[in-house]
Amino acid sequence: MEQSPTFFDPTLFLLFGFMILIYFLMIRPENKRRKTHQEMLASLDLGEEVVTAGGLLGKISKISDQYIELSISDNIKIKVQKTSISTVLPKGTLNSI
């Protein structure tokens, strides 16, 4: 007796299940993180205190399209890429450290 092929193959459901699982566990959270980071970068303003991805803390003194000038101490300013800003600190954090 031959079995006729069926459209509802369990392996196909398993494959779709894994694809949906990967989307909800990996792709969707990363897209949310990227979106919130882009919104944070777009809302940066002069005088805000930030932390770079390398761990430098500073106050924004100048903003251009792709670069930000950070004042990390008196008369010491560095330029970093905008995308390297990881966190915006509450006002007054640098003085309390």
Write the layout of secondary structure elements.
Elements: H1 10-42, E1 49-52, E2 57-63, E3 67-73, E4 76-81, E5 85-89, H2 93-96
Antiparallel strand pairs: 1-2, 1-5, 2-3, 3-4
Number of helices: 2
Task: Show unreliable segments.
Answer: none
Q: What is the second-level CATH architecture of the largest domain?
A: Roll
CATH topology category name of the largest domain: SH3 type barrels
User: How many β strands by DSSP?
Assistant: 5
General shape: rod-shaped
Tell me the major beta sheet.
5 strands, antiparallel
Helix and strand sequence: HEEEEEH
Tally of distinct domains = 2
Radius of gyration: 24 Å
What is the overall pLDDT average?
Answer: 92
Structural class: alpha+beta
Specify the helix fraction band.
Answer: 25-40%
Strand order of the largest sheet: 4-3-2-1-5
Distance between the termini: 80 Å
How much strand content do the residues show? 25-35%
Per CATH, the class of the largest domain reads Mainly Beta
Keywords:
97 residues, SH3 type barrels, 2 domains, 5 strands, rod-shaped
Give an account of the 3D structure.
The chain starts with 9 loop residues before the first helix and ends with a helix. The model has no long low-confidence stretch (mean pLDDT 92). It contains 2 helices and 5 strands. Helices cover 38% and strands 30% of the residues. By secondary structure, it is α+β, with helices and mostly antiparallel strands. The longest helix has 33 residues, at 10-42. A hairpin with a 4-residue loop joins strand 1 and strand 2. The protein folds into 2 domains: 7-43; 45-97, SH3 type barrels (Roll). The protein has helices spanning 10-42, 93-96, and strands at 49-52, 57-63, 67-73, 76-81, 85-89. A 5-stranded antiparallel β-sheet has the order 4-3-2-1-5.
